[in-house]
Amino acid sequence: MKFAVIYYSVSGNTKSMAEEIAEGIRIAGEEARLFSIEENVDPAYLEQCKGILFGTPTYVATSHWKMIEWLNHTSGINLSGKLGGCFATAHYAQGGGDTAILSMIGVLLVKGMLIYSGGAAFGQPFIHHGPIALDAVGTHFEDSREMFRIFGERFANKALELF
Ligand SMILES: Cc1cc2nc3c(=O)[nH]c(=O)nc-3n(C[C@H](O)[C@H](O)[C@H](O)COP(=O)(O)O)c2cc1C
């Protein structure tokens, strides 16, 4: 099954976590490709994907406007019926990573995606709206890599179950 991880990243953090999610999808035995919204999105591949994940840095406690703009105006992809998930990076726990994720989820719902975060039912690591890595809180960023891989794996397994 094909998956895509689409991200916007200024200083590389969100890209780095997108790579971990893609690795988790591959651990589940499925195909994952990474796309920066500014470089290399492949609409033909996205059409074939059953699941697409979206990542953003947190800017002023919401998702980066370029991510929303891309989703609103330039994606040109029919996302309806596909499984969607979101992730973010941020400086601080109180910095708005969750609202960044929720602002993207709102757009994905309008576009008809089925949204999946894994939820808290799996236990550790608890992922509520989507995984968030913090780059200004001790070793949180590096420590989060495993959580992002697990998120990718759970997401792929859910898509396999559904489709
Ligand atoms: C202009 C600007 C605004 C930011 N606003 C927030 C914020 O509101 N909350 C927060 O926790 N981090 C904030 N950050 C930190 C970034 O979200 C964080 O460093 C992120 O990992 C950057 O991702 P990137 O390396 O993929 O660009 C901000 C950074 C910049 C440059």
UniProtKB/TrEMBL annotation:
Residue span, Flavodoxin-like domain: 3-156
The superkingdom of the source organism is Bacteria
Alphabetized GO MF terms: FMN binding; oxidoreductase activity, acting on NAD(P)H
Q: What's the protein here called?
A: Flavodoxin
The species this protein was found in: Enterococcus florum
Lineage summary = Bacteria, Bacillati, Bacillota, Bacilli, Lactobacillales
